[in-house]
Amino acid sequence: MKYKRILLKLSGEALMGNKQFGIDNNRLMQYAEEIREIADLGAEIGIVIGGGNIFRGVQAERGGMERTQGDYMGMLATMINSMALQAALESVGLFTRLQSAIEMKQIAEPFIKRKAVRHLEKGRIVIFGSGTGNPFFTTDSAASLRAIEIDAEVILKGTRVDGIYDKDPEENASAKKFDTITFDEAYKRNLKVMDMTAFTLCKENDLPVIVFNMNSKGNLKKVVTGEEIGTLVTV
Questions:
Q1: Beta-carbon count within 10 A of 173 CB
Q2: DSSP letters along 95-122, please?
Q3: CA dist., res. 75 & res. 135, Å (int)
Q4: What's the pLDDT tens digit per position in 40-69?
């Protein structure tokens, strides 16, 4: 196994599966099974999941709502997804803990770095909900921050495409895929992989990111065991 401790970043939209909104139970269980495979190998797993399948703060802003209010609503959406993922993981026999950046003591522990690391060491999967707990920060930034805090070796960004391309591969058949790329080059090319805050955190802390297709069965295990799939982003 190449990576012992990882931070898996999942988009909220990925949970929709073929739906237009909400959570597709089949996709949720598919992810749970994929995560169980790497847990069985001994991987220590932290997870951050977005909330775009339910609500986005930027949508609220476009509709005239104050951005801060919208972002907090988006954080609550991430908690709904985190709870759904937690239930799915536990249904396949895994032990989990849900930590929230916003206090919700009835459903989650507060985020405490030492507790999170201890859970990981004991083989529990830790899901980090509510983003960073602050408006104006994306869940990509939350994933980068949590990965650094728990000393993860890599961020695995699960998407619906098999890596980073110079153009949108879903719209351009001639799009060229990168096997590896630096943070600087990705920024210069304006490739929308993660937001600038997340990129800067990863670059300054020498934390690699692998972008891969999470929807392809077995890919998560391949990445963790060192197979060269997806795109590796490094300093």
A1: 7
A2: -EEEEESS--TTT-EEP-HHHHHHHHHT
A3: 9
A4: 999 999 999 999 999 977 777 777 889 999
Going from the C-alpha of 85 to that of each of 61, 110, 137, 203, the distances in angstroms are 28, 18, 22, 29
Asked if the model's pLDDT at residue 9 lies above 90, the reply is yes
List CB contacts of 157: < 8 A, sequence separation 6 or more.
9, 140, 143, 193, 194, 209, 210, 211, 212
Calpha distance 200→35 (Å, rounded): 27
Q: pLDDT, tens digit, for every residue of 155-171? A: 999 998 999 999 888 88
Task: Identify the structural domains of the chain with CATH numbers, from first to last.
Answer: 5-234 (3.40.1160.10)
Q: What pLDDT shows up at residue 27?
A: 95
CA 215 – CA 141 distance, rounded (Å): 22
Whole-structure pTM value:
0.95
Cβ pair 133, 188 in contact under 8 A: no
